Amino acid sequence: MGIILITVCIVCCNINTAYAIPVEDPNEKRMIFGGITIDINETYNNSIDSENLSSIAHIFTATWCNPCVEVEHAIEDVANETNLTMLTFHRFAGETEDPFGTENAENWWKEWFNDVLPLQPTAIINGDDPFIGANQGSYENIYEKATEKPNSKFVGNPIISVDYNPDSAVFEWSISEISNNCDEVKTFVNFVEDVAYFPNGSNGLKNYSHIVHHVKEIPGESGTADLTQKLAEINAYDGDDLKLVIAFGCSIFDKEEAVIDDNSNDSPLPHIGLIPTIITIISASMVILRRNKFQSIN
Q: CA distances (Å), 142 to each of 22, 73, 154, 281, in order?
């Protein structure tokens, strides 16, 4: 009986280690750059160096959120004084009052910013740490962050080339020298309504601006995308002021810190190899046999 118990305990230790789930790499760093605005009814063809890119403010808000008004006004003031592009995401999950939230936009926010339960108001500048609440989302904090251009983190001077044809709704892009800075690049086509009139929100605003209705995420630092279907599906809440705002996500992995030991184990139980397991079982068997023999003699 003793041998069986020892065997079971040791084998369980090995099984626990064999099926341990490795820790997700926490060393990924992300930033967002771009902020190129395109009128869907006009041809666009331009190349921009990273020094001339705008900062990008992602804002999570709702039409019933009173503190959001103060934060959005602060960001608007900063945008009027600096080169800042605003992208406003409205709450969708469980929403009954706000007509601007969409499942796609909210899911994109949650995934990219690793934010399971977004709070309003939240402001994120260039994909960096969030400002949550009216106190953090102050004019001073927003202004300081907005003046820290994302190109300051680049090695060299990447050039972004963008082409859009309204007749075919084909969008093309390429970023030069970005592989020197980013391990992974994603392209975000934001379908944004300039201004929508909604007087029924309880926060007192009547006109809501920079509303993100949809985000089309495309992997890669260059490529071609046909936006015909999305443009047919996505409409402005009112008017005809839908625009495309192109942004890019840069992921950087700290390879030195991200090395994970194959033998690492989150479990507090020790890992015992196969050979030590066999030796332990044999030794325990010999002790128990000797004890039984001694007891039989006496």
A: 37, 11, 21, 65
End-to-end CA distance of the chain: 21
- Among the ranges given (38-52, 105-119, 243-257), the one the predictor scored with the smallest mean pLDDT: 243-257
For residue 93, the number of C-alpha atoms closer than 13 Å in the C-beta half-sphere is 12
Query: Contact at 8 Å (CB) between 215 and 188?
Result: yes
pLDDT digits (tens, 9 = 90+) for 241-264: 999 999 999 998 876 544 444 444
SS3 52: helix
pTM for the complete prediction? 0.77
Burial class of residue 122 in the structure, from the number of CB atoms within 10 Å of its CB (0-12 exposed, 13-18 middle, 19+ buried): buried
70-95 pLDDT per residue, tens: 999 999 999 999 999 999 999 999 99
* DSSP label of 24: P
Q: How many CB atoms lie under 10 A from the CB of residue 19?
A: 8
Q: Peptide bond preceding 219: is omega within 30 degrees of 0, i.e. cis?
A: no
Taking the C-alpha atoms of residue 261 and residue 263, their distance in angstroms, rounded to an integer, is 5
